[in-house]
Amino acid sequence: MVSWATVQALLITFGPIIVTRAITHFRSSPAPSNGPKRPIRPVPPHVSRALNILFLTACLALLSTLPHFQPENIFVATQSRLQTPSEVLFTRLQTIRPLTARDIALKSKLVSIDSRLLYLTYGPGPLADCLFCNSDAPFSYLYYAFPSIVTPHILHTAVLGAVTSSLLSGHEGSFWRTKATIAGIGLALAELLAIGTYNYKVNSTVTRTIDLDAFHWRIQVYRGIAIALVDALLGWGMYLSSTNRRFAAPISPAERLESATRVIEGASSKLRADGALRSAVVRDEVLRGKMQNYWVTEGDIMGQIYEERDVVDSVKGALGRLNLQQITEEAGRYADGVLGGLPGLRPEGTMTE
User: Fold this and answer.
1) pLDDT-based confidence at 245, cuts 50/70/90?
2) Which among 238, 179, 244, 239 is positioned nearest to 32, based on CA atoms?
3) Please, what sign has the CA dihedral across residues 223, 225, 231, 234?
4) What is the pLDDT of residues 146-193, one digit of tens each?
């Protein structure tokens, strides 16, 4: 059976290498290029709500690591060695605070080194409350503690499922649903594996309180940090994907066609409205007269402007800098493009390719 010390050694040895390579791979991985990229946008409101929930659960997970929210370790509280007699141990505890019913139950259980070792491994709850557990069958404490171990992970997985549901966060969140569920279940399995493979007798030769490995309290700190880390990574991923900065699928041909169709329909509506307006102006005698007067006046004004000496010199200078041959060719190509499907209407002398 693999011990927890071996797992720790492997994590310390290979953890930095794996994390560094993962970051390098993420930075160097090319973004999807098989289509136009989606424009970057602000975080949608429904994704923002999901991110707020993740932030709240991450904060609660970090708060759970504080000593105030964890059960008391009587050996640390009384600064007693593991070999301290029960009477002395609980007399010291009574000088700190009144004894509770759980303390009385623990006093009758912590009579051997094995029971104290199991206390450091599984905490005070199983030792004080379990009726079928005994130190001769150490795994019986694990069976009793199993619900309390998996309950935080079940709640965490439920939160992950809620924030990645299409009902709350839309398709931006449902993209991460499978990954988030795997992460939540993986944390639970990792904690069960760590507790199940931990050598609870590692403290049997420790003579100083400061050297005791309070595994139960340590694993609770690791749990809170791991849950907060998963929530932070999920929130980061949802932020990147919802704003189209990363992980966003390119615009599909169907979406591009739909967008082009909407643009064409909008332009067509404007052209129809312009045609209706022109028709109304032409049909109305008063409006038609005003329109004719406008263009007559406009022609007189522009004629006077073009007769000014400065304007004439400027126009001649501009025409002298233009390449009339190139402009003629471009105009011919444009006319061919517009009238290409109507050969009979193509102007004579236009360029064809």
Assistant:
1) confident
2) 244
3) negative
4) 999 999 999 999 999 999 998 888 888 888 899 999 999 999 999 999
Contact assessment for residue 125 and residue 141, using Cβ atoms and an 8 Å cutoff: no
Among 313, 315, 351, residue whose Cα is nearest residue 331 = 351
The answer, yes or no, to whether residue 352 has pLDDT greater than 50, is no
Nearest to 242 by CA among 52, 55, 53, 47: 47
| Better-scored residue on pLDDT, 142 or 283 | 142
- Report how far apart, in Å, the C-alpha atoms of 94 and of each of 74, 86, 99, 329, 338 are: 11, 12, 6, 102, 97
Q: Looking at the DSSP assignment, which residues form a beta bridge with residue 130? A: none
Q: 236: how many CB neighbours lie within 10 A of its CB? A: 13
Q: Would you tell me how many other CB atoms lie within 10 Å of the CB of residue 125? A: 15
Which residues, including other chains, have CB under 8 Å from residue 249's CB and lie 6 or more apart?
32, 38
- d(CA 332, CA 254) in angstroms, rounded, equals 34
Instruction: Say if residues 258 and 233 touch (Cβ distance below 8 Å).
Output: no
Phi, psi of 346 (to 5 degrees): -70, 130
The predicted model gives 292-313 an average pLDDT of 83
Q: What is the pLDDT of residue 63?
A: 93
CB 82, CB 206: distance < 8 Å: yes
Which tokens go with 109? Answer: 């259980």
Sign of CA dihedral 182, 188, 192, 193: positive
